[in-house]
Amino acid sequence: MGKVRQILLARRPEGMPTPEDFEMAETDMPVPGDGEFLVAMRVGSLDPAIRGFLDDRPSYLPPVALGAPVNGMSLGEVVESNNPKYPVGTLVRALGTWSEYFVLDDNALGLEVVHRKPGTELHHYMGALGPVGLTAWVGLFAVGEAKRGETVVISAAAGATGSTVGQIAKAKGCKVIGLVGSDEKAQVIRDLGFDTAIDYRATPDIAGEVRKAAPEGVDVYFDNVGGETLEAMLPLMRTHGRVPVCGMIGQYNDADHPYGVKTLWQLVVNRIRMQGFLTYDHLDVLEQAQAELDEWVAQGKLKPLANVRDGFEKLPEAFIDLMSGRTIGKTMVRI
Description:
Quinone Oxidoreductase, Chain A, domain 1; Rossmann fold; 2 domains; 7-stranded mixed beta sheet; 6-stranded parallel beta sheet; 10 helices; oxidoreductase activity, acting on the CH-CH group of donors, NAD or NADP as acceptor; ADH-like_C; Enoyl reductase (ER) domain-containing protein; oxidoreductase; ADH_N_2
């Protein structure tokens, strides 16, 4: 049968994850049952949401048990199948585990067949041509309802989702302002076509800098970080502005002490709509989203920004770097 490597949760992180929170183990090769199929991981996706799964508290998924493999989105190849919808050789995306091989069925969260185009590197289907791009599209257009000529501000703008949101907002004719945490990241998003890049670490007044860049106010604030940045942004929103909430990475490493946002009254003052979302609550628009993403990449309007490492054993290291703010673009590991 052979053995399969897995990366297990050795202990629950306290604050920033460390290598000691994870351990490598081996187990028997899993065997698919009726209606199931065996998937070989080809690309592992590192996402801030994983940090929430490591705490022993409710989230939109149950917490990872101590000693169990870590959950994460993966792109893999079907290598054995008892399900005619997923024959051997099919490429699929889904929530799997940090395992070289894992078993899925029709009910797997986020399960999609990937149709790889010739000449496109596989890892891009876990980035701008996959969940990252779809999340950006859904948040910006289905939830944020961004329109041509509007002003869009994005936090964590050099990250996987933020860098994609900015580019597709520009493709739709929006004015785009990105908030980042270094000069290097500011240059990255300028090179991607953002109208303005603001390094929040270099200024004590984020609100003042955004106000200079958008004196007319902000129509859509795409929130990836929450906390003080959200507090600064709410008074800058125009009447009937929209705040799609993709994540709150600023609080994931200290979920026991969430930041108390003091400007929520602005939701009433300016009738702002603020909404959290998950991509797969919007299945009705994903076909349109995928088609537009493919077209923008083909036209050069969307440049996938990827931070790729090689080797199954690099998953914890890549995740720790992501949560430390040291990465640019979509962080992935090729297996």
